[in-house]
Amino acid sequence: MSLNQTVLEIRERQRIKSKPYDEPAAFWFGKDNLRGDVVDVMTIIFQTSGCYWGKQGGCTMCGYVYDSSTGTPADDDLMAQLDKALEQVERRKLEKLMVKIFTSGSFLDEREISKDVRKRILKKLADDERIVAVLAETRPEFVTDEAAKDCLSVMNGKPLEYAYGLETSSDRIRKESINKGFSFAHFKRAAEIAKQNGIFTKAYLMLKPPFLTEREAMEDILKSINDVAPYAETVSINLCNVQNGTFVEKLWENKEFRPPWLWSIVNILREAKTKHPDLYLMSDPVGAGAKRGPRNCKTCSRDVADMLREFSITQDIKTLDTVDCDCKLLWEKELLLDDVTFGSPILE
Ligand code: SF4
Ligand SMILES: [Zn+2]
Q: Does residue 172 lie in a domain region?
């Protein structure tokens, strides 16, 4: 059975909860380093009809597909979702912020967001004096010269950034561990079109997808950062966690997967930032310390996660040396030993 078929069978057993179509799937606030400037950020996940790739199986670690709508929200519903999030900007009295748009799919896929609504959303954000930049996530196959120009036509010169869940520069790992359905060449093509139009590029990488040892996963990300650096201004490294209704969850339940150690990402950031001082590198360790999340020991996970967030905002490599713990010795042992366990976790 193919990996995609296995993922699809797991998906078909999940129930998607329905939600009023005029409510976003989620939105939240935080801070981010916007090419050298620390700004407030509102992240909004639009509730759309969902990722076409995820609906036919899709990525092995992705539970975001269950945030999608049970139907197809109308154009006015999508605009109402934006209004609900912007009300909170008002309530929080934010004066300078960046807005990140996600859809649990692709902002540029017209089956999720029509061309007209896409422009209405961007125009509304660009016309808002408080908003200094917009980021939108998409799969690379939807990036065309026409779509880029169409987006920019309403941006009033404000910076626009496309973000891609590239995960790795290795086509083999992206295909056989993640089942992503696009290649590094697709990403490079999209980044080049974006660059020609003056649109920034952010690449999301994924530390430790299935079937890689801790050491292989680290090496893969370090190589991927080198490969991606010529095409992206920002690289954000997601740490694979165990989401409900995913192939990764099945492996984890069978004790065949452990999320990455936080020491691994600390080391990756230190090495990569030294090599690429002008590249914005970040990592938000979602679920850090939880049994389904990336973690060290119980004592230090929370502090190391805070340290990673601090580095992501400041880009100051010295912040990565502010926390230490004895469990680092255990992590070093795991790096030596898990090559001989064929990917099965040693410690759980
Ligand atoms: S990770 Fe992205 S491309 Fe993959 S199934 Fe999820 S939403 Fe779709
Ligand atoms: Zn520890």
A: yes
For the stretch 138-196, pLDDT in tens is 999 999 999 999 999 999 999 999 999 999 999 999 999 999 999 999 999 999 999 99
Number of domains in the chain: 1
**Residue nearest ligand 1's atom 6 by CA:** 62
Cα–Cα nearest to 120, from 80, 68, 173: 80
Residues, Cβ < 5 Å to ion ligand 2: 296-297, 299-300, 325, 327
Domain assignment present for 311? yes
- List the CATH number of the domain containing 226: 3.20.20.70
Hunting for tokens 């990455």 — which residue is that? 260
Does some domain include residue 347?
no
CA of 307 to the centre of ligand 2 (A): 13
Index of the ligand 1 atom closest to the CA of residue 50: 7
Ligand 1 lining (C-beta closer than 6 Å): 51, 53-54, 58-59, 62, 64-65, 104-105, 139, 165
**Residue 77 structural domain:** 3-339
For residue 82, is it within any domain?
yes
Rounded Cα gap, residues 331 and 348, in angstroms: 13
pLDDT tens digits, one per residue of 49-104: 999 999 999 999 999 989 888 889 999 999 999 999 999 999 999 999 999 999 98
What token pair was written down for 151?
């987006």
Our CA dihedral for 237, 264, 215, 170, rounded to 10 degrees, sits at 10
- Tokens 């196959």 locate to 141
Ligand 2 mean position, distance from CA 164 (Å) = 32
